[in-house]
Amino acid sequence: MNANTSRAPGSAHPDAGSTASAASPTSAASTGSALGAAEVSFARALRAEWLKLTSLRLNWWLSLAALAVMVLTLTATVFSTRYLLADTSLQDTEAQLTGLGLFENAFASFTLITLLMGALAAVAITTEHSSGSIRSSLAAVPNRSIFFAAKLLAVCGFIAALTAALMLLCFLVLLPLAGFYDVMPPLWEPELWWMTLSSAAVVIITAALGFGLGALLRSTAGAVVTYCLLLFSGPIALGLLQALTDFAPWVEELARFEIFALQRQFTAGSASLATDLPVPLAGALLLAWAGLVLIPGWLLFTRRDA
Amino acid sequence: MITASGLTKSYGERTAVDGISFALEPGRVTGFLGPNGAGKSTTMRLAMGLDRPSAGQITINGRPYAEHRAPLREVGAVLDAGACHPGWTGEQQLRILAATHAIPKARVQEVIEMTGLSSVATRRIKSYSLGMTQRLGIAAAMLGDPGVLIFDEPINGLDPEGVRWVRQLVRRLAAQGRTVFISSHLMSEMAQTADHLIVLGQGRIIADQPLGDFIDPAGETRVLVRTEDAQALMAALAGAQITLVCQDAETFEARGIDARSIGRRALEIGAVVHELTPLHSSLEESYLRLTGNYVEHRSGGLV
Ligand SMILES: Nc1ncnc2c1ncn2[C@@H]1O[C@H](COP(=O)(O)OP(=O)(O)O)[C@@H](O)[C@H]1O
Ligand SMILES: [Mg+2]
To answer: Which of A215, B24, B78, B192 could tie B137 with a disulfide, CB 3.0–4.6 Å?
Structure first.
């Protein structure tokens, strides 16, 4: 078929010769180009997704907003500590708890950052649909499961990197602060490290929910609004239920499975209360929440027309 | 090679593509012609695996699109409405696509230069004109140097220079032995680029034949010829099915023979030709007659 063409036989398929495509002219030989292309792989799809994330200015704005939230929180912590601890001198364990408390306060700002990151994750997929770039993306990576997984992993990686940077900032500010007021948390014990790692995990897992919603709804506004509803409707509805039923036990039971409650129970670590769910279970349930949205999102994404 | 068999796509109640079958050959430009809403874009989206067929299948080089392991090396497509993110620069868009196939940066630069985008490559796509967006789409399609090219209405929004550039590019790609599939709703456009035409009306194929055949049955091909050697050329062209109508000393109109054949004949007898214009009214008419029953929204008469 290509005998009369000016192009050399292709080499895109290692098994060429056994398939019909063997006859297709697919080589750069005649154009003398700098082409040296390989097959699509998960790693390459992942690299492309990473490039997309870093090429999108919105993501840098959202990251900057997250940084601003953290800087404000830390500034507030520094000033409030001066007033709180100015002229008290604390005993050993008390001092350590106070030191941990400083970190706990700063990490509380991750709730707000989680909202920003959920939006970032949702936009990563909805923007492809709204701009139409999904068509060229899927032309390059037609296996939709690979595409979906690569995008999810890239988004989680981006958020993880940002969260790590913010955590580092917390330590850079709070450790000297704790040292200055003599309320150093015990660095050789796992409390602080668990709090740090689990808080980071919570940001990533919760933001992944936003990604799943983006895949399900395809619309930025729809996904972001639903994401906020999903996070906040739980506490609001439960609060109402508690008021209506006068704190019935079944409402209290239900309240433990709501997303923010699970976040708290998971990050509590050894400070977990007797009434709390076990820490690993709380973590697993958080993952289940994410899966509840991600799995239908993935299934729909692989089946729907782009 | 693009092959469709019994390809059908319905959106709810509406059947956009209705059991079409065709096979495209490499080394030629196949025009995909039909009025708006005929199902051209849908067929092309099906070919790219973006939509799933309701029935039948469409394969490229013997496999459904999604089964290719290096799809950008096999197929390049410019689908309508620009598939680019407005927030990226042209270069970023190409780098992102290149990353999926480990295509080197040098190739990205090469297609940028080839499509004349060098001066705007680092600007955001948001600021591009329609013509630049089309060029970027073509650059993306050429990235993997594929043997099959799919262009959906590539000349929409292009200035005359751009139109000519696309026409030449398309011809050149076919001459290099590639399969070129190009859609349009303008017969006049296809007449200048395509070797073969598939005409679609309301999701069904109403003609699938070489451009020449498309015109001949009606016997209405008209070509305006302006030459210094009018008498000699007319004598050389005279034949059974050919009518020659003299207009003035240097101009005549030929019917029943296409412009290419006239040009070739002129070369043979060494005639100096100043103008060789296919007069498309008849071509356009036969196309309109063919598709007349399939137009979705006929324009109402203006009173
Ligand atoms: N995603 C879609 N959902 C519903 N109907 C669609 C969709 N895409 C195309 N159609 C319908 O299918 C028909 C063919 O459309 P299209 O392939 O875009 O035609 P063309 O490209 O030939 O103008 C039209 O009637 C259009 O309204
Ligand atoms: Mg169309």
So the answer is: B78
